[in-house]
Amino acid sequence: MTAAARSLFGRRARLRWIHLILGGALAMPYVLVGSVVVGPITGADNLFGSLTLQLAAFAVGLPLAAVSSLFPLTRPLESGVVRSLCGVDADLLAYGPARTKGEKGRTAAWFTLHLGVGGIVAGMSLAVPPFAAALIVLPFVPALRDDGAGLPGVLGHAWALALAPVAGGVMLVALAGCAAGCGALLARWAPALLGPSAEDRVAAAEARAADLAVRNRLARELHDSVGHALSAVTLQASAARRLLDSDPEFVREALAAIEDTTRRTVGELDAVLGVLRDGDAPGTAPAPTLAADLDGLLDRTRAGGLHVSVTVTADPRALPPPVSREAYRIVQEGLSNALRHAGGQVTVTLRVDVRDGHLRITVENPVGEAGGEAGGEAGGEAGGAARSGAAPRPGGGHGLRGVADRARLLGGTAEAGPVGRTWRLHVRLPLGRTA
Length: 435
Prior knowledge:
Region (Disordered): 367-402
CATH class of the largest domain: Alpha Beta
Number of helices: 12
CATH architecture of the largest domain: 2-Layer Sandwich
CATH superfamily of the largest domain: Histidine kinase-like ATPase, C-terminal domain
Helix content: 55-70%
Strand order of the largest sheet: 1-2-3-5-4
EC number: 2.7.13.3
Number of strands: 5
Structural class: alpha+beta
Pfam family, one: HATPase_c
Distance between the termini: 62 Å
Catalytic activity: ATP + protein L-histidine = ADP + protein N-phospho-L-histidine
GO molecular function: ATP binding; phosphorelay sensor kinase activity; protein dimerization activity
Radius of gyration: 38 Å
Strand content: 5-15%
Shape: elongated
């Protein structure tokens, strides 16, 4: 089938034709109401015997259609039909009721246009095919050429009979072309008349941004809490397995730490997942903060065999709650990186102090000892990606990117990378703002 034939008789053209026929069907009640008005004014007994009077009734009924389009469901219904039958992209249409004057005006214009053009095409679809079929079979059916058939006298000529089938075919093609053209025009105008307004687009963009922000926050919370817990539990279980026979006391402490870590993590996980469940209230487990659980975090980390040297000159209880909460997650991620990459063979240094109106968090560990070199290089790659904004390598860098996001949301900065033979995470959080 050629492109021209597809444009006239293809699936999309047929569906748009159906859309126009539906517009004509919807226009019929308004035409009947218009005939009630036109009939008494003109004094005509048979309104449907005159094409002029029918068009007049049609013209009177269209304003009534524009008024009825103010019904709230008009725009959602029309948008759904346009998407299904006219092939208009769903993102270009609005599916909520028209609320503002501009939206109601555009909906009224569309509904009137649909019914007006659809009524004309529907009328042509009813009248043209029978007449075209009569012309096509006219040379082969003598009864149609009788004077009583009501056909024009010119069709009695031989040359007219020879051209009658051609004329009939041309009329059918012209009807298809008219329907395809009208359908294409309505499909082109639909986004402008049924599409979202500028306010709708802004509101949708803000809703998507808010949803994305919530998803990113939940992803960070899950990564930091669950990721740290799994790293700590893995090392604690490994150390307990190695010392099961030689140091039972250490094994008991490791198992107790595993129990405490998993219990706390289940509570945090339930709090985060509560936000994701439709109809559920957020979990009641409080978000951990530097003031409430720094010592517990250090104890659980040391239970995994990691040596942690801590210097805290800032008073965690004096920190603003948002800073204390994000600082806890940042420290947790720094210790988690050390657990994953450095193992228990090195000493991790943690410093938390206040200088120049900023809370400063520094986590350092050597990268040249056993198990630390490869981890430091991997971490350095991820940290560099976090600083530069480039995508991290598969399987790494998400935690450091989350640290950078947390610092940025508070108006601070985060730097991570190798400094000589030391892997260093340094974060500065302003204490004067809690953005």
